[in-house]
Amino acid sequence: MNILLLWFHKLGSPPTFYRLAGLLLPWCYGIGLVLGLVALYGGLVLAPRDYQQGDAYRIIFVHVPTAWMSLFAYAFMAANAFIALVWHIKLSEILAIASAPIGAAFTLIALVTGALWGKPMWGTWWTWDARLTSELVLLFLYLGVIGLNAAIEDRRQAARAAGFLALVGIVNLPIVHFSVNWWNTLHQGSTVRLMGPSKIDAAMVWPLLLMALATHIWFFGSVLMRARIALLQLEGGKDWVRRVALDEGAGND
Amino acid sequence: MNPVRKRRLILIALVLAAVGVATGLTVLALQQNMTYLYSPSEVEAGHAPAGARFRLGGVVLEHSIERTRDSLKVDFIVTDRIRQLPVEYTGILPDLFREGQSIVATGTLQGGRFVATEVLAKHDETYMPPEVRDAIEKAKHVEAAGAAPAASTHAAQ
Lengths: 253, 157
Known about the structure:
The complex is a heterodimer.
Chain A: H1 3-12, H2 14-46, H3 60-87, H4 90-121, H5 130-151, H6 155-168, H7 172-182, H8 202-234, H9 239-252
Chain B: H1 3-33, H2 40-44, E1 54-60, E2 66-67, E3 73-79, E4 84-90, E5 102-110, E6 113-121, H3 130-143, H4 152-155
C-alpha cells in the first residue's frame, strides 16, 4: 500500500479524525470569523455605492457568497455520499450527513436575502423563474436528506439511504448554476465569472471574494464540529471514546 | 478494487447516468416550452395567449413614460428595439423602473394595449460606482463626438 493511501486510511479512522478535527476547529472558526468581519466592513462601509441601486446592492455581500455556499456544500455532501456508498467508509457517511443542515442554512439565507432585495428592486418578493425555483428545490433536497436520515433507526443505514438521495439530487446543481443562461429568467446572470471578465468593479469585488473565502472556512469548521459530535455518538461504547471522555473530563476539572 | 466495491461503483455510476440523462431530456423539453416572457415582436406575431394573462418582457422606450397627475396610473411603451407595445399600469413601480431599463410586465392584451397588473424591473449583472459610470459615459461621448447624443444618457437620469 502506498504512503498516500496509508495516510488516507489513517485519517479515516475515527480517533485520528477526532483529534485532528479538534486541532483544526478553532482555527477554522477564528479565521472564518475574522475574514467575515473584515469582508462585511469592506462591503458595507468601504465599497462604493452602485450607479443604479445605490446602497441597496450591498446585500450581495451576503447573498452571493451564501448562494455559492449552498452549491458548494451540496457538492461536498454528494462527494462524501458517493465515497460512503461505494467504499462504506464511516467517516464519509458522517461528513455527508453533517454538511446537510449547514448547506440548508446557507440556502435559506440566500433565498431570504434574495427576497429582501427583490421586493424593492424587482418589485416582488418571489417569482417562479428558473433560478429561484431550482434554488428552492435545492433547499427541499437538503431537507429531504435531513428528514430521511432522521427517519431510519439504524444510523449507518440511515446515512447511506440519505446519501443516495443526496447523490441523485446532484443533477440539480448544474440546473441552478446554468438556469440564468438556459432560460429567460428575472434573475440576472452571473456577475463574477471564472472564465472571462467579471461585471463588477474591482472596488466592490474584493469584499465579495473575501466573504466567499470566509464562508468556506466557516463551513469546514462547522462540518468538523458536527462530525466530531456524530462520531462520539456513533462510536459511543468504544475504547477511544472512553479515553476521550476521561481525558476531556479530567481537563475540565 | 475488490469485486463488491466495483459492483457498487458500477451500479451507482449507472444510476447517476440514468438520472443525468433523464434530467437532461427534461431540461431540453422545458427549454422549448417554458417561456417566462414574450417580447413585443412575439406578441405582434400572435404567439402570446389571447385573452389570458402572460408576461411581457422588453425595454422601457426612452421618453415614453407618462404619469397621470391625480392617480398612480402610468403609461409607457415597451420595446424589443424591433416592435413596440403600449403598456398601462396602476400602482407602485419598483426602484429600478426607468427609461431604457429591462422590465417584465404581467397582464392581458386589451385592444392593442397591454394592461399590466404587475411590473417587475429586471436588473443586469453589472455593478459599478457612479463615478465609473460617468467615466464610461464621457468616453462614449468623446467617441461619438459630432453624432447625436446617446440615448443611454437619458436612461441614467
